[in-house]
Amino acid sequence: MIDVKHQRKGYGRQAMQLIIDKIMTETDAEGLIICYVPENTSAAKLYASLGFVNEGITYEDEILVVMRFHDKIGASSNL
C-alpha cells in the first residue's frame, strides 16, 4: 500500500513491476493471482495495465485477476 500523500506518482506501478519481474526470473511460478475490492477502480486499472486479466473469478466479495507468465512472455518476447 502507498500512503495517500504519495499516491499517483508511479510508486505502486514500479513496485508491482519489480515484484513481477523478480517472480518471473527467480522462480518457476506459472503466474500470479491478486485481488482487490470492486470499489477500488484505481487498482483495477493498474493491474489491467500490468497485464493481469479479469477472468470473472471472485473470492469473498473481492475480484481476483490473473497474470499467466507464458502469456506475458509471449506478448513481449523479441525472440
Describe this structure in words.
With 79 residues, the chain is of the alpha+beta class. It is 43% helix and 25% strand. It has three helices and three strands, in the order H-E-H-E-E-H. The protein has helices at 11-26, 41-50, 69-76, and strands at 31-36, 53-59, 62-68. The chain has a three-stranded antiparallel β-sheet with strand order 1-3-2. The N and C termini lie far apart (35 Å). Residues 74-79 have low confidence and may be disordered.
Q: Tell me the overall shape.
A: globular
**Radius of gyration over alpha carbons?**
13 Å
Strand composition percent: 25-35%
Look at the helices and sheets and give the structural class.
alpha+beta
Mean pLDDT: 88
Percent helix, as a range, is 40-55%
Low-confidence runs (pLDDT<50, min 5 residues)? 74-79
How many individual β-strands? 3
Tally of contiguous helical segments: 3
Distance between the termini: 35 Å
Instruction: Describe the sheet with the most strands.
Output: 3 strands, antiparallel
User: In what order do the strands lie side by side in the largest sheet?
Assistant: 1-3-2
What letter string, H or E per element, gives the SSE order?
HEHEEH
List the helices and strands and how they pair.
Blueprint: H1 11-26, E1 31-36, H2 41-50, E2 53-59, E3 62-68, H3 69-76
Antiparallel strand pairs: 1-3, 2-3
